[in-house]
Amino acid sequence: MSATLSSPSSAFLRILTERGFIHQASDLAGIDAAAREGRLTTYVGYDCTAPSLHIGHLLSIMMLHWLQETGAGRPIVLMGGGTTRVGDPSGRDETRKMLTVEQIEENKNSIKEVFSRFIRFGESGHLAAMADNAEWLTKLNYIDMLREIGRHFSVNRMLSMDSVRLRLERDQELSFIEFNYMILQAYDFTELHRRYGVVLQMGGSDQWGNIVTGIDLGRRLGTGQLYALTCPLMTTASGAKMGKTASGAVWLKGEMFSPYDYWQFWRNTEDADVGRFLKLFTTLPMERIAELERLQGAEINEAKKVLATEATALLHGREAAESAAETAQKTFEQGVTADTLPSVEVPREDIETGIGIAPAFVRAGLAASNGEVIRAIANGAISVNDARVTDRSRIVAASDLKDGVVKLSFGKKKHVLLRAV
RNA sequence: GGGGGAAUGUCCCGAGCGGCAAAGGGGGCGGACUGUAAAUCCGCUGGCUAUGCCUUCGUAGGUUCGAGUCCUACUUCCCCCA
User: Fold this and answer.
1) N or C end of chain A: smaller count of CB under 10 Å?
2) Which residues does UniProt assign to the signal peptide (predicted)?
3) How far apart are CA A158 and CA A182, in angstroms?
4) Alpha-carbon torsion A250, A84, A92, A212, what sign?
5) What is the mean pLDDT of residues A29-46?
6) Domains in chain A, please, with CATH?
7) Is the CB of A411 under 7 A from strand B?
8) For A79-95, what is the mean pLDDT?
9) Helix (H) and strand (E) counts for chain A?
10) How far apart (Å, rounded) are the C-alpha atoms in residues A196 and A125?
11) Which of A23-27, A64-68, A145-149 has the highest mean pLDDT?
């Protein structure tokens, strides 16, 4: 743990500090000076393990956002097209399942677009650039690599790194391929220094070891001083890992997690987290956040709505955010059916024929199986047009249509409109 | 190389005399209470054309009316001896 710089002179570090982004840094004074001079070219790497990033990645994206916003330096987004083929062992007990090269490429293309929401890309100045480490890592020759890079790594030291040590201590398998991950990431750092003049690597706290390894390699290869800065691992006040919901992760890609659901996710933040999240996940001025933090009791709901709308606006745009806010207001506060609720289209003739209650919920995506719906009915969780269903043989029919839609609800929070077309 | 132990409900941990859709817990979901929060209490947490049928206990065979449970081989992991 490094001491926090009592009074950073760069806008970049000042903002990161007061908003709670900083977990560890290698040399705050050095970072501060480079930021002040606008030469803090910085990269964050993202592995392509899924078709979308999720909110766990948001912290580091926000840091790149502030880097650009404050003119501290140029953001470099590194796609891990190469490293994903190897698999990072950091912070996990088990080896990831190997992805095919095709899957990685698909994921990479699917992930890319989200960054332009938070940072501006371009050729010059502080406009961001995107790189892909497949470009250089896949061309490495094993023997040359060992001679030029491998000789700078001490296995003794590598064994002491958390990502490796924790695995070994728990008697968990660590394959040779994973053991190499940190070497590749370290090499990336030096390569990005060579290509773009990158001097800082940021990432989650679990990346500390990998980043510092890169700094060491840089010193031996003569890159000059490189820096590390990590953000905390996001957990909720009650200690749960953030971003897990019923359906899985909170994805940043709209097709996988709708703007409405995204708004709802933030709306349901625990009281104790609201202030912290406003600082991290919105760009509202600190004075405004301080105001919101003063709200007590049920008034905190107002702060949660601001959080939800601002966070959603950053990712999906102001319009989508306000539409989500409005839909929520109609649904939860006025108790009317908002026609902007998520909807699923169903052929009109199917509804005229009649659809069983269970299949209807499965088609709406509210349940995974008929059995789940039957059990939910027994739990009193199922409603059609806001009327609780108690009979499992209930049929959703044309008589349920209001303005061409039927409102299906699973519990009080999950609603989907079945739209006859 | 020799000896011993382990793999359980496709989220995780874990009990399981030959009759088991399989104890318990965590997590998740739902209900109540609230404020679309937390905490607490209660319920649910294999699938289906559903008083029945089908698929599940590392893999493949075998014994048996019947196997998660017994036998054999294989795979993977752990421990001890060399």
Assistant:
1) N
2) none
3) 9
4) negative
5) 95
6) 11-233 (3.40.50.620), 259-336 (1.10.240.10), 343-420 (3.10.290.10)
7) yes
8) 79
9) 19, 15
10) 11
11) A64-68
